[in-house]
Amino acid sequence: MTPTPMAGLRVRTWRSKCSVRRKARPQWTQMRAFAPRPAFWGDGDGISDSESLWRNGGEKWTFGEELEEEQLRRAGGYSNGQAVTPIAPLYAYRLHRIGAAVAKAFAAAGCERIAITDLNETTLEQTKNAVAAAHPHTQLLVHSGNVADDQFADLFMNKVVQYFGRVDYAVNCAGVLGQPLRSVETSLEEFDRLNSINYRGCWLSSRAQLRQMVKQDALSSHDPSRPPQRGAIVNVASQLGLVGRPNAPAYCASKSAVIGMTRADAIDYSKDDIRVNCVCPGVIETPMIMEKAELREAITPAAETTPMKRMGKPAEIADAVLFLCSTQASFVQGHAMVVDGGYITV
Predict the structure, then answer these.
(1) SS3 per residue for 250-280
(2) Signal peptide location in the record (predicted)?
(3) Mean per-residue pLDDT for 109-133?
(4) Which of 98, 222, 240, 275 supports an S-S bond with 32, CB 3.0-4.6 Å?
């Protein structure tokens, strides 16, 4: 049995469903190594200044589409010979950036069950509406929350599994840039804030995802000769986790930590058929950059330094994320994929 698009549908079944809906995407048929449910945590452009929406233990769950079938509660892949649609839990800060692009990309690729979380209820609602409008068959589980909360990650994962049965892809992209300060000027509060979201939040989310994935059955690849996959996690780090930048010691360190964690988890969970990789974006054209003149002026020189002489698009990061989740990347493990227009090469 061959898995389908995002979240664990089998390729064979996915093709038939897509042909009926006239959505066939040949370029994705070879990437059906996706396990049945992706999860996205946070907006990984590293430039959000968000705070927690998971306050006072309040739960705010909404659904973009009514969950029609009891089998949505079951494990992914096939249930009694029937394929269940994929799930993509997305944990995100400010979903109008990279996190939103990833959610939309999973839906466009055929994932019909997506769970997303965001620190900001407004952008969370915007992303839900955008996905639902473009892909009305996609079922969305939406919940505002704080990835830095040590209880939220497990609670959200439990809710996703309760409704969708399993998690096959997880994308952790919560991040904040921080103030432009040297180490001596950086307060302990600012240092802790950056690391609480960028590193600690990513670790908490990834830990919850790994805890679930190790309990799941592995799903077959699109290619019978390749090994099955129990799950795939993509953490969003930064090019600044690999190279330094003036006035950003705490941020650079927090993103380096994400890369180191990714590599260590990849080693530890290879035996469980779980792949863990990360994407390292460069300067990405997001609303926050384009709408704030002072920030745009500060960032533009870095973009012009790249060989490609431009900022990247959120969709270009989403493409890299989807590739790393797919079984076309079945031999990619512990990799920090740089998507920065060539910035670190010069």
Answers:
(1) HHHHHHHHHHHHHHHHHHHHHHHCEEEEEEE
(2) none
(3) 89
(4) 222
In whole numbers, what is the pLDDT of the chain averaged over residues? 76
What is the 3-state composition of the chain as percent helix, strand, coil, each rounded to the nearest 5?
45, 15, 40
Considering only CA atoms, which of 276, 262, 52, 49 is closest in space to residue 151?
52
pTM greater than the 0.85 cutoff: no
Which of the residues are catalytic? Answer: 251
pLDDT for the residue 222: 82
Which stretch of DSSP H or E encloses residue 244?
none
With residue 300 as reference, give the H or E element that holds it. helix 293-305
Pairing of strands 169-172, 139-144: unpaired
> Which domains does the chain show, CATH number per domain?
6-345 (3.40.50.720)
Phi, psi of 115 (to 5 degrees): -115, 130
Q: CA dist 340 to 15, 83, 108, 273, 297, Å?
A: 33, 38, 23, 29, 18
pLDDT at residue 68, as a whole number? 32
- The amino acid sitting at 50 is S
Is 64's pLDDT higher than 80? no
pLDDT digits (tens, 9 = 90+) for 307-330: 999 999 999 999 999 999 998 999
